[in-house]
Amino acid sequence: MLGTLYVQSGEITGIGIGGAIAMGSISAAVLVANNLRDIPTDAVSGKRTLAVVLGDKDTRRLYLALVAVPFLIALGMTVRVPFALLGFLAAPVLLPAVRRVAAGRGGRDLIPVLQFTGFAMLAWAILVSAGLFLD
């Protein structure tokens, strides 16, 4: 994301850095959700993924922290781009995933978390980008 910004504009901006961190964070949340789902089988087979090392409870906390980052960044972006608040319209897309993770769901019940998180990532990116153009 930052590479594209630099190639097209010749500069790297704070908004660009924030957007890159937000997208990286929610992308990592997709991977964390997938690894959360696999903790029981990974532990039995001896795989030492981050989720296995952290354990179920802390992996869930990591997921929740990662999905919060884009919204905190959108809030911070409003100092320079008030329409960045449009990113919060992605929150309802993410809510079912957050509920499943926070409720302690496991196994197959976590598969939709991957879908909801991915859709929320797309929605956040489109909405914040629209906010940048509206400014």
CATH architecture: Up-down Bundle
What is the mean predicted local confidence, pLDDT?
94
CATH topology: Four Helix Bundle (Hemerythrin (Met), subunit A)
In CATH's first tier, which class applies? Mainly Alpha
Q: How widely separated are the two ends? A: 20 Å
Uncertain runs are none
Number of structural units classed as domains: 1
Q: Roughly what percent helix?
A: over 70%
Please tally the helical runs, counting DSSP H or I stretches of 4 or more residues: 6
* Structural class by secondary-structure content: mainly alpha
The topology string of helices and strands comes to HHHHHH
Report the count of strand segments: 0
Quick description:
The protein has 135 residues and is mainly α. It has helices at residues 2-9, 14-45, 50-54, 56-77, 91-102, 111-134.
Walkthrough of the structure:
By secondary structure, the chain is mainly alpha-helical. It has helices spanning 2-9, 14-45, 50-54, 56-77, 91-102, 111-134. The longest helix has 32 residues, at 14-45. It starts with a helix and ends with a helix.
Layout of helices and strands:
Elements: H1 2-9, H2 14-45, H3 50-54, H4 56-77, H5 91-102, H6 111-134
